[in-house]
Amino acid sequence: MNLMEFTQPSLDYVALAPFLVVLGAACLGILIEAFAPRKIRFVTQVVLAVLALEAALALIIWQWGTYALVDSWRAPIVRGTVIVDGPVQAGWAILFGFGLVAVILFAERRLHGGATAFTPAAASIPGSKGEAAAAKAGLVHSEVFPLALFAMSGMALFVAANDLLVLFIGLEILSLPLYVIAGLARQRRLLSQESALKYFLLGAAASAIFLFGVAMLFGFAGGFGYDQLAKAVSFAATDGLLWAGLVLVAVGLLFKIGAVPFHSWVPDVYQGAPTPVTAFMAICTKAAAVIGLMRLFYVGFGGLVWTWQPILAGVAIVTIVVGAIIAINQDDMKRVLAYSSVVHAGFVLVPIVGAATIQSGLAENQAGSVPATMFYLIAYGFATIGAFALLTLVRSQGREVTALSSWAGLGRRHPVLGVFMVIFLLSLAGIPLTAGFVGKFVAFMAAWQGGFWWLALVAIVLSLVAVFIYIRVIQVMYFREIDETSDVEVARPGVATWIVLIVCAIGTIGLGLFPGPVLDLLQSAASFILPS
């Protein structure tokens, strides 16, 4: 065969349609930024982003309903480097669904000139003079919407990758926009700039480590495909290049998940980034990294399952312990939720460790590791975005304040918003009748079914310890004396914030009371396509 000969790969545009819609909208958003008049730019970007994500979700639902019984349709495409199967479709639905909720939250607050201001629909909310001046001058960072769409398209590619190089490309596409929007906060706000720079430097280091691992795995397997990797593992499971590559690639993935000891960026970036951006990163980035890790370890490293399971189990336990201990001692709400994110990074690894799948002998009527992990991500996403949405409302002199003391008595002064926050905190704590409880139950059961009963028991004990993180916040909201001299006030939510709060509350309570339909749907999409 002529080495210069190039054969054009065939593309299944129907299978890739949700991803292509989001990517196309991101590219169109860049053109709008370049050529659209400033006065209409913000509204145009909001409408484009919302319509694109709704169209992507509609396409996923249509595909799921039309092709659910056609197993041959779910297959590798683009020469096997990208794959569309049940877990990919479910992952895309999670990413685009929570991405849509986050975009609505972006639309409530204009990220401009640095200062955060509210949209005209929420103009009655008090703001600083700088915010008003920037809004009047039209200094709006509307580019946050195409950047978020680019990040989501990278996440979608990351989830669907069936090749190590494609996985790396997806990692970079999702990371680069996040480095930018993490710094789009208040004008000359050094904390945001510092957090964005720290995220970029640490993220670049993690990407380099990941790429070194990819190079070693290529040297071991002779190719980048997961199928090539799986076949090579079955013949030489003790090769040094394999283990070095596996460790380095795992470091890059665990960095994005926020697992200990690769979590140092999480509290600083979460605190410094604009709160809606933090909410977006907290669920979407974590979900993409978790699903991507799960595919790589189940498909590419499936032959090493008995070796990497104890390692991931240790990472999960250390992550939960470290995150919980530090979270309890935080006096800033953003950092509390940041370390809470670290804790949940540990919990979401628990079902992955179990590796309970149909291929490993799991009965078809049992919810194994894949649906359990995805359900956990959904439950965590509703509670986290809702909690961050409430953080945007606590302000002093028009500026957002995140000190835990500023929440003193909030539940008594604003009972409706207090109830919302309690719902989200109880779900994060895993209290019954919330989605968080069901998520932890199915996650621990998946570990138990996979033979890791001891990990399930340890996780149950640690989840009881983690409850104190959220009980402490509730205690401040309802039982701490109100400081009458404080100028902290709770802004009136705009329409977009109300939509986010109501959707997240319904999701949290609805999945806590009626989890069956969603679990059944996820279970129907739980099988990875494995190498033949």
Average residue-wise pLDDT: 85
Number of helices: 20
Question: How many whole angstroms does the radius of gyration measure?
Answer: 22 Å
Largest sheet: 3 strands, antiparallel
What is the N-to-C order of secondary-structure elements (H for helix, E for strand)? HHEEHEEHHHHHHHHHHHEEHHHHEHH
Outline the low-pLDDT stretches. Answer: 111-130
Order of adjacent strands in the largest pleated sheet: 6-5-7
Helix content: 55-70%
Whole-number total of structural domains:
1
Distance between the termini: 25 Å
The tally of strands reads 7
Strand content: under 5%
Gross morphology is: globular
Judged by helices, strands and strand pairing, the structural class is mainly alpha
Describe this protein's structure.
The chain contains 20 helices and 7 strands. The chain is mostly helical and about 525 residues long. The protein has one domain. The strands form 3 sheets. Strands 6-5-7 form a 3-stranded antiparallel beta sheet, with no helix packed on it. A two-stranded antiparallel ribbon has the order 1-2. Strands 3-4 form a two-stranded antiparallel sheet. Strand 1 (about 75) and strand 2 (about 80-85) form a beta hairpin. The longest helix is centred in the middle third of the chain and has 32 residues, at about 190-220. It is globular.
